[in-house]
C-alpha cells in the first residue's frame, strides 16, 4: 500500500465506512427479533432459549483472538474473518428457522449462534483499533461516535425488520447471512491504517461535531419512525421511504471527505511551527511515514514531564546497558505502551475491568430481560420500550465520549469519574424499577439506557490512555469480557432464578407483577453501588496520569519536554 499523507482524506473516509461496519457489528442485538420464531419452530423451552442468549453474549464479547489479530494483520483480513463468521453462523440459523433443514441438534444451533455473533468482535475490533490509531488526539470522541453507532444498530435492524422484511424472522436471518458480509466486503478497502496529522487541525472539531449531529439525527429519526410504524402501520411505499431516508442518514459521515475533495484547504496552514510542542511524534516529519502510532512507545511520547524526575536514572540505565553492565529493560509506566501481560498484573487494569464489569453486567441483565420486564409490568407490546432503550443507549455512548473529552481537556478530569456518576444514577434507576411506581417504566428504561451506554464509551479511550495503543486490541477485548460474565452471573443466574421462582408461585411459565424482578433489581443496585465506589478509587489513582497526558489542554507532548530534545 502506498504511504498516506498526514491529515489527508483517508482517515475520514475510513471513519465514514466504519459507521456501516459498526452497524453490521451490532448484529447480536437482533436476537430478540428472531428468538421467538426459533423457540416455536424448534420447540425450545425458556431455559434453552436463555442459554442461546448466553451464546449470543459470549460470541459478541469474547474477542481476545480478534485483538491479537488486529496487531498482526491488516484491517481487511480481520474484517474478512468477521464477514465469513457472519455468513456461516447466521446461515445455519436461517436453515433452522426457515425449516430448510429440520431437526438440527441444539448444540449445533448454540455453536452457530456463537460463531454468528462472534463476527461482531472481529468487525468491531478492526474498525475501532484502526480509527483510534488514525485519530489519536481525539480518542474519546472517536470511541463515542463508533460505540454510538453500534448502539443505534438495534434500532436500524428493527426498522428494516418492520418496514422491509415485514417482521419475518427467516428473512431477517437471510439478510444477516448475505447482506452483512456484502457490506463488510464493500467497506473493507476504505478502512485502513493512515498516518495521523502531527498536530490538531482547527477543522477537525467541526468535522466531529457534524458526525455527532448526524448520528443524533439518525437516532431521533429511528425512534420516531419506529413508533409511527408500530402505531399506524403505514403502507409499504411509506415504509420503504422511511428505510431510504435512514440509509441517507447513514451515508452522511461521508460528506466530510467529499467536502475535503471539493473544497481542499491549505495543508500548511494548520501545521505547527518547527520545534512546536504540537508535534505528536518528534523526529518523524517525513510525509512518507507508513507506520502510524507504532513507534517504540506511541503513548509515551505524550507523557512529557510526567517522568522528568526519572530522566537521570533512565540515562544512567541506558549507559549501563550500552556498556554491557546490565541487560534489564525498563518496565512501561502508565500512559506508555503496555504488552497485555504487563497490563494484566496492574491494579489499575483490574480496577477498570471491575468497574466496567459491574456497570455493563447490571445493564445487560435488564437489556436481556427487557421484554419480560415490560410484560411483567403490564406492557403488551414491548417494541417501543426496546427502541427507547436502544436510542438512549446510543445517547449514552455518544455523550460519554463528548463529555469526558471536554472535561479531560479542560480540567484534566479522568474519564472514569463518569463511569462512577453513571453507576450512581443506575442505583437510583434500579430502585425505581423495584418500586414498581406507575408511569416510571419508560423513564427508568431511558435513564438506564444512557448510563449503560456511558460505560462503553468511557472504558475504550481510558484503556488506550493508560496502557497505550500498540496492544490496545487485546486489552480492549479482554475488558469486554465483563459483558458476557455479567450476563451469565446477573442475568442467567440471578434474574433467571428469581423469575422462575416467582412464576412457579403463580403456577405459570409467565410471571406477572413487580415481584418478578424486584429482588433482581435490589441485587443490581448493590452491584452498581460497588462499581461507583471502585470508580472513585480508580479516578484518584489515575489522576496524576491524566494531569500529565493533558497538561496542555490536549493530548500532546508538553512544551517542557521540547527543550530536552
List the helices and strands and how they pair.
Blueprint lengths: L9 H16 L5 H12 L3 H16 L2 H9 L2 H23 L8 H29 L4 H25 L5 H19 L14 H31 L3 H16 L3 H8 L48 H12 L17 H5 L2 H22 L1 H7 L6 H28 L5 H20 L5 H27 L4 H8 L2 H24 L9 H35 L9 H4 L3
Helix pairs in contact: 1-6, 1-7, 1-8, 2-8, 3-6, 3-20, 4-6, 4-19, 5-6, 5-8, 6-7, 6-19, 7-9, 7-10, 7-16, 7-18, 9-10, 9-16, 14-17, 14-18, 14-20, 14-21, 16-18, 17-18, 17-21, 18-19, 20-21
Q: What general form does the structure show?
A: globular
Q: Based on DSSP secondary structure assignment, what is the total number of beta strands? A: 0
Kindly report how far apart the N and C termini lie: 32 Å
Give the structural class: mainly alpha
Taken in chain order, the helices and strands follow as HHHHHHHHHHHHHHHHHHHHHH
What is this structure, in a nutshell?
By secondary structure, the chain is mostly helical. It has helices at residues 10-25, 31-42, 46-61, 64-72, 75-97, 106-134, 139-163, 169-187, 202-232, 236-251, 255-262, 311-322, 340-344, 347-368, 370-376, 383-410, 416-435, 441-467, 472-479, 482-505, 515-549, 559-562. The protein is globular, with a radius of gyration of 24 Å.
